[in-house]
Design brief:
The protein is of the alpha+beta class. The chain contains two helices and twelve strands. InterPro entries: C1q_dom (IPR001073), Collagen/C1q_domain (IPR050392), Tumour_necrosis_fac-like_dom (IPR008983).
Length: 266
């Protein structure tokens, strides 16, 4: 074979080999497309919750209850209710709760009715001479022992200027504010304890006598600053008295007096 021919066959042989390799590659690629599988993808994110479904239809009414002996008569069901039990004992009171917050201010109330007509006064806001007088003196002539812890009442009125003392109730009511003097004197065959009381005093002002003589004489007095409407009265109280003395009915007398020293406007 000549050198020229040798070169031709060599090129031809190389070309043939290239064609065979291409056909083999084609066949191999076609086989993978038909039988090979790719990698699985990543799962997607969960979707939002779905909406609630529609309400279902109402079910059919159930069968009536059946007792061991047969169906129950609905007419006797109320009679089968048990009797109410007795009330249980009261429980222990719980602790006091916390104080609540102060509530808002309420609305103003309705205007009240007009008060009674006042007494006329003199010029310059001063009481007239007749209106500015107040004095009383009354006597208890009842022989019974004055009831304990009760207002002493009186049967005889000697003086009651301005009608400020009520003999039936035994109380003096201040009509003219000012400074007053009150005093009492009692006489009895037994020991007596009397006290001056007033809503102008913090406590009772008491007096007692235990001389055990045939005649017991007791006196007491006080000066008080009174405002309009304040009251003053006498009360009997028990200290060392014995029962026979409290039941005593011998002759007794109590004199109670009071008068205005000067009014608050002076």
């Amino acid at each position: 074979m000549s050198p020229s021919n040798t070169g031709f066959w060599t090129m031809a042989g190389c070309y043939g080999v290239a064609v065979l390799v291409g056909v083999a590659s084609f066949l191999t690629t076609g086989q993978c497309d038909a039988s090979c599988r790719g990698t699985d993808g990543v799962p997607g994110a969960a979707g939002p919750p779905g909406r609630d479904g529609y309400q279902g239809a109402k079910g059919e009414k159930g069968e009536p209850a059946v007792a061991a002996g047969g169906p129950v008569d609905v007419g006797i069901l109320p009679a089968l209710k048990g009797q109410a039990g007795s009330r249980g004992p009261q429980g222990v009171m719980g602790p006091k709760g916390y104080s609540g917050h102060l509530g808002p201010t309420g609305t103003h109330g309705a205007v009240g009715r007009p008060g009674p007509e006042g007494e006329s006064i003199g010029h310059g806001g001063q009481l007239s001479p007749q209106q500015g007088r107040s004095a009383f003196s009354v006597i208890r002539t009842d022989n019974s022992y004055p009831p304990l812890r009760q207002v002493v009442t009186f049967q005889t009125t000697v003086v009651n200027k301005g009608q400020d003392f009520n003999a039936a109730t035994g109380q003096f009511s201040c009509r003219v504010p000012g400074l007053y003097y009150f005093t009492f004197h009692s006489m009895a065959k037994v020991s007596v304890c009397l006290g001056i009381l007033s809503d102008a005093l913090g406590e009772r002002l008491g007096f007692c006598d235990y001389n055990r003589n045939s005649d017991q004489v007791l006196s007491g007095g006080v000066v008080l600053q009174l405002r309009l409407g304040q009251k003053v009265w006498l009360e009997s109280f028990r200290d060392q008295q014995k029962d026979p003395e409290i039941r005593d009915t011998q002759e007794k007398s109590i004199i109670f007096s009071g008068f205005l020293i000067f009014s608050a406007s002076e």
